[in-house]
Amino acid sequence: MSDHQPVHLQEYQPPAYQVSHTELTFDLDPAATRVSARLDMTRHPEAASDAPLFLHGEYLTLHSLALDGTVLDEGDYRLVEGGLEIARVPERFVLESVVEIAPCENTALEGLYQSSGMYCTQCEAEGFRRITYYPDRPDVMATFKVTVIGDKAKSPVLLANGNPVERGELDGGRHFVTWEDPHPKPSYLFALVAGELYKVEDGFTTQSGRDVTLQIWVEEENLDKTAHAMASLKRAMRWDEETYGREYDLDLFMIVAVNDFNMGAMENKGLNIFNSAAVLTHPHTATDQAFQRVESIVAHEYFHNWSGNRVTCRDWFQLSLKEGFTVFRDQCFSADVNSAPVKRIEDVAFFRTAQFAEDAGPTAHPVRPDHYIEITNFYTLTIYEKGAEVVRMLCNLIGAEAFRRGSDLYFERFDGQAVTIEDFVACMAEVSGADLTQFMRWYAQAGTPEIDAYGEYDYVHGEYRLTLRQRTPATPGQPFKKPLHIPVRLGLVGTKSGQDLRLTLAGESLGTDGVIHLREEEQTFVFTEVAEAPVPSLLRDFSAPVKLHFPYSREELAFLLTHDSDGFNRWDAGQRLAMLALDDLIAAHRNGVEKVMDSRVVEAFRLLLTTPMEDKAVLAEMLTLPSEAYIAEQQPLVDVDAIHAAREFVRQSLALALRDEFLALYEDNQSQEAYAPTPEQIGQRSVKNVALAYLMAIDDDQGLAYCQAQFDANHNMTDVRQALTLLVHSEHNHLAAPALKAFGEKWAHDPLVMDQWFTIQVTRPQSDALERVEHLMQHPAFSLKNPNKVRALIGAFAQNRINFHRLDGKGYALLADVVIELNRLNPDVAARMLTPLTRWQRFDDARQALMRQALERIKAEPLSANVYEVIEKALA
Ligand code: 0A1
Ligand code: ZN
User: Fold this and answer.
1) In sequence order, what DSSP letters do the residues of 552-585 get, joined into one string?
2) What pTM value is reported for the model?
3) In whole angstroms, what is the distance from residue 716 CA to residue 281 CA?
4) Which of residues 196, 226, 256 is at a domain's end?
5) For 620-630, how does the pLDDT look when each residue is reduced to its tens digit (9 = 90+)?
6) Is residue 647 situated within a structural domain?
7) Could you give the angle at which helices 810-825 and 865-875 cross, rounded to 10 degrees?
């Protein structure tokens, strides 16, 4: 029972009234900010002349409303659910309103709120309606002029989108700055920041010779943590010019770091607002991973200036239009400036774990959903990451050169407009002549397609017959699926030569590395002139977001691991080989049979460890076993304990058998260089730290000494964090406890380091993890109001599989308690934290019952739309 109603794509109507220009004045006060708005409005030519005017508005106290200068009284308008309505308005008019809002009470972190004493905004998707009455939808685009008035002492810095055009002093210790943004934008790209902020400034000259001022605004103590973000920004600006011909379009580009933020960052026009975790780095406080994340998020938000801002979404069903495309762009950027194969491996490993799980669960939805209750729930791995995979397939299908022409056409044709996914795909079809009709199903069908592949070599005719059969499992609301157009990149690796064989298909040569197009439910591809028996290397570089099953033998996988010319598939062969061994061990554990390590895996690892490899980051990936979460994804029914036991057994067996090799790898990859987040250094640290983890898995004395020494050396956070993690996750409490204490005291002043300190403790495999969570929730550095803290402590614990899934149900109960509290404070974060509980169908009966019980307990509360929607789906 609830009044949370879904919105449907089918019901889209263009807005009856447009805003051409918006003027806002903010008189800032924590409990009573006054927002005055002046909107120049026009009726849509196709709207009826008696179409009422509806403006969104939530959590607003209306002070006054005037139409063309005439004050309206309560008979002239109606306050309705979610906004206000005026029955009749002229064709063109000016609407003025004054409202009051309370940023200090805003714990949802949507609209105007306070973070560490400063004011900031988050308007995507529907936060602007918490600031003023407005047609808060992306297809209403206006130019903005914004005046921010604040206390001179508390808010010396007053920022908004665009360029500052006027500033001055006011009575009572107050001052103001006026900003103008000449580019029409939807309300979701509005931003305002005010507070005691400090800037680091730099410059960039665009390809056409315009000088742009770049500023990163932070709290004073973080001034030394901006260099990497600034360098990343400049690289991204150059890359977008070189790769997409896209130039920045204002004189000023600002980034602000805030401590309380629901997501990673936000692409507001000219004024990007970042979660401090997504922008601040320092060798002593941030790991290599954090450095790389900052680089990619800075680039992502910058790239939105074109893919999102200049061309935006018609409605929120089109969210992946900007997000899928922009993630694809940031992935390509990171691949270009770092190690490309490692970037792909990392992205796919994450994708196959987390997005596959989403696509297989009760909240599965297409890349373009057709209905939602709360759009905030749809900022998902499917919209972002699967959306990016779909754009990548498009690019590969038509070729990079056509893709560039298609994107040029898209940006030119739709500049300043709010458009749809069809508009984007139509540009790609137009420039390439490709028929993308069937391809569009990727946007409409949820669920991960599975391909069963089978191959046969005919010695007599020198033919290789490859049969592929596709099926997409049913997902909620979509019982039947149609076949998709799936590009399968492949090679045939000769078992004698170890080389890629030439591919000839229906008389046509595909070179040695080609793409076949699976469009039917089942198709057989006959390769001719195949001189020797091959092992097929399928789905190279993960050419489509599918699960591919092929009955590889372990020998064939070991062969691909060393001979495949595709780096991604070499890695994947190793993962498949490890999975086969893990499957046996999971079965052994369940049946109470003694576990025996597969010597083929040991020998494959020995070969990896003894063969020099250029890209050390790739080696680190190849030496890393599939995660427990990924292994779980592969099982029909998740046995949490068996998976953990099997994986630990493999880790320990490998470490015991290859102890000397791991030791040598560790010793050979020490570096005295000053820290730099370069691909070479990162690769070296990764491989060294993987080796250390193996040594710590078997309690090796030398390994332990190295681990302690690495912690004490205190060289950089990557090494320190790894050492501390390994100590805390070991049984050596007498070493772990003082190290944790020292670390916690040293970094008590730095929230981002304390987040890591929390995570390290609650991810330990020992059975006291849950008690540690309970204890740490009382720690002065913890707060349920700060999303980073919630993620670092509660979110991280929910990833600690053996402990979260404790059979006494305490892990689930703890999460439910947190969700119930967050449902009141911050519905967006509450709904996200709920995710692990929604996957109950995957577990055994006892756990299913406990997880459902936790969900039912949440359901009994008065729920926000966010949590309501997720709970309804989870319990449907
Ligand atoms: N557009 C941003 C993501 C974002 C979405 C919603 C937010 O608040 C509820 C914040 C950020 C991006 O893709 O980076
Ligand atoms: Zn984005």
Assistant:
1) --HHHHHHHHHH-S-HHHHHHHHHHHHHHHHHHH
2) 0.99
3) 11
4) 196
5) 999 999 999 99
6) no
7) 150
Amino acid at site 164: P
Sort strands 271-275 and 252-258 into parallel, antiparallel or unpaired. Answer: parallel
ipTM: 0.99
Domain boundary (167, 196, 225) is at 196
176 and 70 inside one domain: yes
Range of the domain at 842: 747-876
Lookup: tokens for 838: 């929604």
3-state secondary structure of 245: coil
Average pLDDT over the chain reads 98
Residue 267 Cβ < 6 Å to ligand 1: yes
Q: Which 8-state DSSP code applies to residue 416?
A: T
Which of 96, 124, 301, 869 is an active site residue?
301
Q: Do residues 104 and 38 both lie within one domain?
A: yes
Give nearest CA residue, ligand 1 atom 12. Answer: 266
Specify whether 520 is catalytic. Answer: no
Regarding whether 454 and 324 lie in a shared domain, the answer is no
How confident is the model over 487-513, as a mean pLDDT? 97
Rounded Cα–Cα distance for residues 579 and 842 (Å): 19
Q: How many CB atoms sit inside 10 A of residue 358's CB? A: 21
Burial readout 46-83 (b: 16 or more C-beta within 10 A, e: otherwise)? ebeeebebbbbbbebebeebebeeeebeeeebeeeeeb
Instruction: Report which bound ligand comes closest to the CA of 264.
Output: 1
Residue 560 lies in a domain: no
Q: Is 90 exceeded by the pLDDT of residue 1?
A: no
Residue 828: give its domain's CATH number: 1.25.50.10
Residue 258: partners with Cβ closer than 8 Å, 6 or more residues away: 115, 116, 118, 120, 193, 273, 274, 275, 276
Total domain count, the chain? 4
Three-state DSSP state, 857: helix
Alpha carbons within 13 A on the beta-carbon side of 758: 29
CATH number at residue 324: 1.10.390.10
Gap between the Cα atoms of 53 and 73, Å rounded? 16
Q: Does residue 400 sit within a domain?
A: yes
- CA–centroid distance, 475 to ligand 2, in Å, is 26
Question: How far is residue 840's CA from residue 302's CA, in Å, rounded to a whole number?
Answer: 38
Q: Are residues 454 and 402 in the same domain?
A: no
With a 6 Å cutoff on the Cβ, whether 376 touches ligand 1 is: yes
Furthest-apart CA pair in the chain: how many Å?
Answer: 95
